[in-house]
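Summary for the steering committee. One of the milestones for this cycle was to obtain a three-dimensional model of the protein with magnesium ion bound, which we needed before selecting residues for the alanine scan. The sequence and ligand used are listed below.
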Amino acid sequence: MIRVVLTDIEGTTSSISFVHDVLFPYASEHLPGYIRGHHRTHPAVAEQLARVAEVSGVDDRDLDALIAVLQQWIEEDRKENALKALQGMVWAQGYQNGELKGHIYPDAADYLQRWHDRGLRLFVYSSGSVEAQRLIFGHSQEGDFTPFFSGYFDTAVGGKKEPQSYQNILAELGVEPASVLFLSDVEAELDAAEVTGMKTAWLVRDGELPGTGRFVARDFSEVDALLRKR
Ligand SMILES: CSCCC(=O)C(=O)COP(=O)(O)O
Ligand SMILES: [Mg+2]
């Protein structure tokens, strides 16, 4: 029986276009000012810049070059932990000053609340940092969804296409694999989760439904039908 729902964000609870056309451009525009204003006073910023320098090979005292690397990584949608941490810090300012409002599909908003109220435990697993996850759900157009979540995982547990990451999540949750339903729009992530024995549902919100043996859902109401069957 499924007792835990573990959900991806981009393409699953929230639109790809919100992430790519709103969040990423916002980060690209505001990172330079944020880094220049905080790199001396905020150790967390300096620490992430050191990681950017290490991964990219750029001199860690060359702020212009580090900013250029970060903007290039945003362009390429690279899932580097240092970029994701810095994006979360910049988005925090945007959510706090009201420039950003998180997108959640109405069906996701509706069923997250219903599943919580039915006693399911809800967790997030996204490439966005845990801070960024709390922000998108805490400052959404639909209100504050953080009370419905029991916890958040980012790529500190490993990449989303690696089975070991799901194993790490299971170890942290202390539950049987078959009691967890993982939701994602990316099939390779579902493949990785299934290696551990987790159940999965593939969210295909737009375009043609793929011919596949796996469970596919257009939205969370179709996921709910699966939850009620198992
Ligand atoms: C937490 S909102 C920003 C999401 C993000 O930065 C990203 O790279 C999308 O990753 P996901 O694993 O949710 O597809
Ligand atoms: Mg996704």
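Key point for the committee: The beta strands are 4-7, 121-125, 149-153, 180-184, 199-203, 216-217.
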